[in-house]
């Protein structure tokens, strides 16, 4: 069992930055592939960024060159650094941990980009 707790969301102006954190507990964090998803009101949940156990990363085209995913296995934490934020980045952001058939979700953190 893995428990995931996201933090770091909030209200930011267009062009601003935020760093989301996802703290994991309960299992061997380093073996999991970690993902950040987001869901805007009335829309499906979309994959934003992925980091594997070997620290390989992948990004959705919409956030490439603006967002950076990273992990600190010593702290059991994955991060999402978000720069040059746009109003269309407004969503609830969810952390996900996946390994074999194990699949865990956090409760989400709201990010609102507005002037």
What does this structure look like?
By secondary structure, the chain is mainly β. The protein is built from no helices and eleven strands. Helix content is 0%, strand content 55%. The model has no long low-confidence stretch (mean pLDDT 96).
Instruction: Using the alpha-carbon principal axes, give the shape.
Output: globular
Radius of gyration: 13 Å
User: Helix/strand/pairing class, anyone?
Assistant: mainly beta
Q: How many helices does DSSP assign? A: 0
Instruction: Report strand %.
Output: over 45%
Major β-sheet profile: 7 strands, mixed
Average of pLDDT: 96
- Number of separate strands: 11
Element order: H for helix, E for strand? EEEEEEEEEEE
């Amino acid at each position: 069992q893995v428990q995931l707790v996201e933090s770091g969301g909030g209200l930011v102006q267009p062009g601003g930055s935020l760093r989301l954190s996802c703290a994991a507990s309960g299992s061997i964090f380093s073996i999991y592939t970690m993902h950040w998803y987001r869901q805007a009101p009335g829309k499906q949940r979309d994959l934003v960024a992925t980091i594997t156990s070997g620290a390989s990363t992948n990004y959705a085209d919409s956030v490439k060159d603006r967002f950076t995913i990273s992990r600190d296995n010593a702290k059991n934490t994955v991060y999402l650094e978000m720069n040059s934020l746009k109003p269309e980045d407004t969503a609830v952001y969810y952390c996900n941990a996946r390994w074999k058939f194990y699949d865990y979700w956090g409760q989400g953190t709201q990010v609102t980009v507005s002037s």
